[in-house]
Amino acid sequence: MGTQNNSFKDIIVFGFALFAMFFGAGNLIFPPYLGIITGPQWLVGFGGFTFADAGLALLAVMATAKYDGNVIALFKRAGYKLAVVLACADILCIGPFLAIPRTGATTYEMGVMPLLGTTIPIAVFAVIFFVITYVLTIKPSKVVDIVGQFLTPALLIALAVIIIKGVIQPLGPIVEEPMIDGVVAEGIAQGYQTMDAFAAIALASVLIVSLNEKGYSTVGDKLKVILKAGALACVGLALVYGGLCFLGATVSTMYGVDAQQSQVLVNITEGLLGYAGKAVLAVCVALACLTTSIGLTSATGQFFEKLSNGKLSYGKVVLAVCVFSACMASIGVGGIVAVAAPVLSVVYPPTIVLVVLAFFTEKINNDNVYKFAVYTALVISVLTVLTGYGINIPLVNSLPLAGLGFNWVVPTIIAGIIGHFVPGKNSEKELA
Q1: Is 246 helix (H, G, I), strand (E, B) or coil?
Q2: Are 90 and 202 in contact (CB under 8 A)?
Q3: Looking at the domain assignment, is residue 349 inside a domain?
Q4: Which family is this protein grouped under (predicted)?
Q5: Residue 69 and residue 19: Cα distance in Å, rounded?
Q6: In whole angstroms, what is the distance from residue 94 CA to residue 192 CA?
Q7: Are residues 330 and 370 in the same domain?
């Protein structure tokens, strides 16, 4: 009875928790830039972005919740080896290869540079940032909880002021034509870049522990709360992303596709609210990046300690992550985004396939459905990335939904159907 009485309060609490989980400082970088390059079609681009970011993240949390936060269990029906490789790839993306270094680089470009210029080199700052990350991750401090507790409201208030001012007094007119072709595909690609779906998979176990403590014992009860809380979080994210996209569109006559993504919002804020606004935004972004860095570093350490059965200790993994991330952060946000794009384009589709199939796992009695679908998504994703490097593979761009960036969807569905008719086992039932 107590669980029912508290469910509304829990939905609100978990809704804000999911919002904070999905909304890292990296999410500030992409929507304004997307608004610039899509111009009059910013609303269309924003739709693609929100789907690929908040929509997929919510699906990922719910899918992982079905397996009590165990990523390998979520992926294993595609084959244990592939499950381990894909889970490691996902964790490394939100870990030392892409997301964690980006927190340091973003802090430098949106927090330090606007206020202090380049008096502190990025390499020196990256070392300082990740030493702090290491200390607070190895010995968790109440400082992190305090910052997390007050940071999200502070950042939201700051953004609300910026967005409302930008709507009432736009900085400029919106360009007449988008600067790019394929607005929806670009929105989806930018949404991928946030890596929130990967973060959701990695951090879902935190939510599961909290739900268990609050008395939600069945998978159905947990999914119900996560769905409602997730809907609340997604509405909040959509409002913020929509506002930031619109702000970007209002400065589309001042920037081009070569705009430095991390500087767009800083410059917009200064244009709307002056130096004081820029300083407040810089502090909020710096704190948001630090808490994100600590959370993701901790999740990476826990994952590899568990995967290696303790052979890789939490402390050693955290140290390695911080050292590598400091090196990666030194190439700057632009460099990290350039590295991230092809990697994410390969890893995301098979991950999405496994997340979607997780909702039908009881109905699917043949593991070949998973294997055929996942490997097809993986192969097409690799071929698509290769075409981006000038290798001519005509079939890839002529597949259905290629214009939307979803050329892997129809072949993957067909492959899954074929897999259903190829005799195979049901590893889920065997392990049950």
Answers
A1: helix
A2: yes
A3: no
A4: Belongs to the branched chain amino acid transporter family.
A5: 18
A6: 12
A7: no
